[in-house]
Amino acid sequence: MTDDRSAFRAALPDGGRLLGLDVGTRTVGMALCDAQWMIATAAETIERRKFSKDLERIKAVVALQYVVGFVVGLPLNLDGSQSKQTQAAKSFAQNLRPVGLPILLWDERWSTQAVTRDLIAADVSRKRRSQVVDQMAAAYILQGAIDGLAALE
Fold it and tell me: Which residues contact 149 (CB under 8 A, 6 or more apart)?
């Protein structure tokens, strides 16, 4: 588990899908990118239950989608300091380690706000926004990470 893009990239095979996770207290938004790390797309939102149930669903997605690494959103305060939510996201990421895939922690400040703004601008209903905002935030986080990985090349 690292926040260093270079170390994460070195731990990955060439190509393969990445799974982005926006970890909240009640839900986990998931997004996937293509095998060439060009485009991130929203996948699904899972309701948080016990971690073992959350992990079971994540493992199923990893197997079905040939995922080679995780990008976990790290909710820092605006000044870059850590909060309770930061620690919760780190703990969640730490608990993913038994899956055996590299994990990148990615600064997710403003992701949910940016996605919500876009959804409002697209005139998406409040009910529909609540259904998709977490998975779209995960896609926003994952897109930032894959853009950051592309900058290394």
Answer: 5, 8, 9, 37
pLDDT at 118 over 90: no
For residue 126, the model assigns a pLDDT of 78
Question: With pLDDT > 90 as the criterion, what percentage of the chain qualifies?
Answer: 67
Residue 50: count other Cβ atoms within 10 Å of its Cβ: 8
Query: 2 φ, ψ to 5°?
Result: -150, 160
What sign for the dihedral angle of Cα 148, 34, 22, 67?
Answer: negative
The single residue listed with the structure tokens 């779209």 is 136
Alpha carbons 99 and 48: distance in angstroms, whole number: 18
Residue 54 half-sphere exposure toward CB, CA atoms < 13 A? 21
CA dist., res. 47 & res. 24, Å (int): 10
The pTM of this model reads 0.90
Of the pLDDT bands very low, low, confident and very high (cuts 50, 70, 90), residue 15 is: confident
Q: List the 103-107 sheet strands across, edge first.
A: 40-47, 27-33, 17-23, 67-74, 103-107
